[in-house]
Amino acid sequence: MDRNRARLDWLDALRGVAALVVVFDHSSYAFMPELRQELIPEFNTSRYGIMVFFLVSGYIIPASLERRGSVRGFWLGRVFRIYPLWLAVVAAVLVAGLLGAAKVRGFGEQSAASAALAHVTLLQELLGTPNLLLVLWTLSYEMAFYLLVVGLFTVRLHQRSAAVALILAGTAVMGVTAGVLVPGSALSAAVGTGTLVALASAAMVVAVCCASVGPPAVRVFGGVLGGVLALVLVALNGTVPLWEGLVILAVMFLGTAVRRAESGQRSPRYAAGVALVVVTCAVASAYL
User: What DSSP string describes the chain?
Assistant: First the structure.
């Protein structure tokens, strides 16, 4: 069997397990409420399934960038990979809402233009904007990860994914231990959701454009700007606790570390050690 095909089969199998776990979690509300009441306090099946999906993304996405060797090619690939399906889903939700077949979520006092802009960036979950469709929240963390991966690539630190995973996981534990409390959507509350959406969207456009074209110094500036934007939004404007946002990113970088071990770039023992630390920190952060 082709080695690359074997890797994809392994990833597809992992995705399948995660999908079944998420389906079980959602169906248990209606079909197994008693079991859910006993199980969820001990083992959050939805969170487990989602974390597996994030792990798989971490395995795949940096490989796509490194294979191309081009930030511009990477972003173009992401646009054509994500937005066609995204547009179809958003259009279906809006049409269903107009026909009365589904209830479209409101955005409170936020203007429709601001909410639309936040969704177009895919960062709405991190910009204080309610998701038009609840499941879209994962795309915000995916986009934050893309920005961080590109940032590391532009400063030639993309091979340090294991170290990044350890730093993020360790910071999550230290934040909880030190009692660092950041209220949800803190930046939105401080400057206003509309203002934050406008500023973050502009920063993202500048970051992506600069990292994709121009001389090396401009590309580095764009990559660093995007990475800083992602970290600031995850740390200071997520709707989940600070530790959980950092753990999500740590799990994604762990996926990258696993791929490097599988491809022979790093020792499998080293990757296993990183995995043990990240999982331990994630569990400790949740229960401290």
Answer: --HHHHHHHHHHHHHHHHHHHHHHHHHHHHH-HHHHHHHTTT--HHHHHHHHHHHHHHHHHHHHHHHHT-HHHHHHHHHHHHHHHHHHHHHHHHHHHHTTSSPPPP-TTS-HHHHHHHHHTT-GGGTT---SSGGGHHHHHHHHHHHHHHHHHHTT-GGGHHHHHHHHHHHHHHHHHTT----TTHHHHHH-HHHHHHHHHHHHHHHHHHHHSS-HHHHHHHHHHHHHHHHHHHHHH-SS-HHHHHHHHHHHHHHHHHHHHHTTSS-HHHHHHHHHHHHHHHHHHHH-
Position 17 confidence tier, pLDDT thresholds 50, 70, 90? confident
pLDDT tens by residue, 68-102: 999 999 999 999 999 999 999 999 999 998 888 87
**pTM for the full predicted model:** 0.90
